[in-house]
Amino acid sequence: MPSVARVPQVVIIGGGFAGIAAARQLRRAPVEVTLLDRTNHFTFQPLLYQVATGALAPSDITAPIRWILRRQRNTRVLMADVRKIDPRERTVFIDDEMRAISYDYLIVAPGARHAYFGRDEWEPYAPGLKAIEDASEIRRRFLLAFENAEKSENPVEREEYLTFVVVGGGPTGVELSGALPFIAKKALAPDFRSIDAGGARVVLIEAGPRILPSFPEDLAGHAAQDLRDLGVEVRTRSTVTKVERDGVYIGDEKIRARTTFWAAGNKASSLGAFLDAPLDRAGRVQVNPDLSVPGHPEVFAVGDLAVIMQDGRMVPNVCPAANQQGAAAAKSIIRDLRHQARKNFRYFNKGDLATIGRSRAIADFGKVKFSGRLAWFLWLFVHIMYLVGFRNRLSVLLQWSYAYFTYQRGVRLITDVERYKPPTDQRPPFQR
Ligand SMILES: Cc1cc2nc3c(=O)[nH]c(=O)nc-3n(C[C@H](O)[C@H](O)[C@H](O)COP(=O)(O)OP(=O)(O)OC[C@H]3O[C@@H](n4cnc5c(N)ncnc54)[C@H](O)[C@@H]3O)c2cc1C
Q1: Per-residue confidence at 415, pLDDT binned at 50, 70, 90?
Q2: Which of 12, 283, 299, 356 has its CA 20 to 30 A from that of 235?
Q3: What residues are in contact with ligand 1 under a 6 Å CB criterion?
Q4: What CA–CA distance (Å, rounded) separates 7 from 85?
């Protein structure tokens, strides 16, 4: 273990689920904490698709990191982009100037980005959903498609504008595709004159044999049926081979669509590559059982950046795991300082939930599994409760109730129109 004489300096990279949990765990520890995040806010990612579909505003699911940790005297927050880590020198480098910050302990929690399986050129035509900017971009494209369809006089083009493809049948793809037909039918259709907005076509494409592979087969089957009932075309065993501005290819077949969203696959932050540790195919750091990085007991990789096995299965990259890992890494630091032995990380799975459309969901609690409206209420309750500690809980509940009971979407502004160029030179919402 590192020998430390002065107040130990703990640097945390990332103010997401794992980074915030680590910082909170250290609030009474005899250390000085520096939390670095390239944005000034924490994002509650499970509700990103609600922003993407206009039910919630960006401010409903974000909170300033500085505000979250305002009562923590031993913690400073710096809005800084970490560019490089030198684990041998125990230093991280931030921003363009590559300013150096030294640490005694480092918790690396920068999360992941969506990945295009090496086909990054698809990103301009098929944005993914990971950050608040992505959600705003998806909302903008979704709403713009209806505007363009309304003003088009070419029936083929209209149909292309009214076709939406979602690539990836995991929870994000399912949530997104399940929400779109409903909004088109209930919130948008009455407002358009030349088009049948309610007849918008939504196609969900999944390469594997079924959607929601992380859920039991029967529940995933319910979800697929729910999606079909909502009007979504679910295409399984279909690998996307090309994405263009006006459509998506599955082999030789082209689905003509002007709007494609990407929800298929993640790539861990590139910061993992600086840690002198083995990475898996998704760029995740293969950590020790105590979440430390091999060869560097003073460095921990946690959350979506880390890969760790438990009982023969990979601990999933989900919020509860990120939370628990962030807290566990912090506890290991505290145990070190007390000269106690570290404990191995153990993930406690509280259960999995995924929502489909307006009021359906599936719930998997191991022995207890169910679907339908009850699961949806549970999903709602869990997500509202999770926002505890972030000030927006009441606002979210009010916005949601508005959207639920009036069938309307509160957030339908199309902003940043200037940035919208003809699709040939569309660029990704923002480059990282
Ligand atoms: C659309 C979507 C829906 C999801 N739905 C669910 C769900 O329903 N249930 C569930 O449990 N999980 C869900 N997840 C997964 C869950 O959100 C992640 O597992 C979790 O956020 C991982 O936490 P993290 O702390 O590792 O990373 P993140 O929460 O992603 O936080 C990483 C932080 O690091 C910062 N950062 C990154 N790079 C740098 C850098 N170089 N310098 C400085 N700062 C940096 C980022 O700005 C960010 O604030 C969903 C994810 C997405 C994208």
Answers
A1: low
A2: 283
A3: 13-19, 36-39, 45-46, 48-49, 81-82, 109-111, 129-130, 171-172, 269, 271, 303-304, 317-320, 322
A4: 21
